[in-house]
């Protein structure tokens, strides 16, 4: 069994605030958690991590270029 990850209130509030607006891998790096752990926690919290393509294009164009162009939106599904 894996080690249980503890979450601070600040991390939980950050995830709640940016879920669906910031790519999941970026969130995971920002809070220093594995992507799989973030996806599990977001699911438990009832949050979706999918970032719509129009938001990626407007606010994260460098992320799209770095991570596969228009298909990068698929990388952020929980």
How would you portray this structure in words?
The structure is a single chain. With 78 residues, this protein is mostly helical. The chain has one domain (10-76). The protein is built from five helices and no strands. It is elongated and about 35 Å long. The chain starts with 8 loop residues before the first helix and ends in a 12-residue tail after the last helix.
Key terms:
78 residues, mainly alpha, 54% helix
Count of folded domains: 1
* Basic shape: elongated
Return the average pLDDT rounded to an integer. 86
Largest sheet report: none
Radius of gyration based on Cα positions: 13 Å
Helix content: 40-55%
State the separation between the terminal residues, measured CA to CA: 21 Å
Q: What oligomeric state best describes the polypeptide chains here?
A: single chain
The number of strands is 0
Structure class: mainly alpha
């Amino acid at each position: 069994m894996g080690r249980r990850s503890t979450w601070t209130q600040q991390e939980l509030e950050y995830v709640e605030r940016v879920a669906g607006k910031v790519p999941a891998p970026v969130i995971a790096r920002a809070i220093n958690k594995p992507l799989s752990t973030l996806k599990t926690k977001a699911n438990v919290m009832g949050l979706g991590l999918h970032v719509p393509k129009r938001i990626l294009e407007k606010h994260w164009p460098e992320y799209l270029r770095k991570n596969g162009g228009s298909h990068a939106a698929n990388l952020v599904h929980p």
